[in-house]
# Entry
Amino acid sequence: MNKNGCRNSILLIEDEENIRSFISTTLKNQNYKITTASGGQEGLHLAASFCPDLILLDLGLPDMDGMNVIKKLREWTAVPVIVISARSNEHEKARALDGGADDYITKPFGSIELLARIRTSLRHSSQMQDMSLTRQKPYHCGNLTINFENHVVTLNEQIIHLTQIEYKLLTLLAKNSGKVLTYTFLMEKIWGPYTDSNNQILRVNMANIRRKIEKNPATPEYVFTEIGIGYRMAEGD
Ligand code: CA
# Structure
């Protein structure tokens, strides 16, 4: 059950019809809400529009490698991803986990194993959310909303796709909105204490963020430059 008292929603990305229908039936019988996609592009699209609580992902998809699906998802969401694949070697498994998958299940598998993996992943993810619930209310300012709980940034109700670094930078600024954060502070928080003092990487990322969220990056509405000091984000509503 999720916090609204409904069974969790699951997105299944799998091209093989028989496996898709086996998993769908199994999950429907357990009252999960299930959405299916038969390719990577369709899956990414559905992940963004439905914001499922968990994703089951086949690695061998016809239109793109499942590894790339994980990579794309991790640019904007921390939704748990369980990889389902015929590939059983450890290298592939490690690569999927390093790439951001939460768990891995090898075909063929039974319904009991599948359901157990799903329950575990959902439990971990809700614990993670509870831990960060020092009640981070979403940031709202003008047409920009940042939902810290589900890592979704929207502008005019459209999802903005940010890289992990861009998301970290933007949320750090938003959580401190109204305050100037210095280049050094931002560099240390995002890239660690041993990065060199050249701010080029920070400026590049900030330019990318502005391109994505500002109507006119030269006259920003959300993130302001404090010349020679750092950046300041507009105070939330
Ligand atoms: Ca496949």
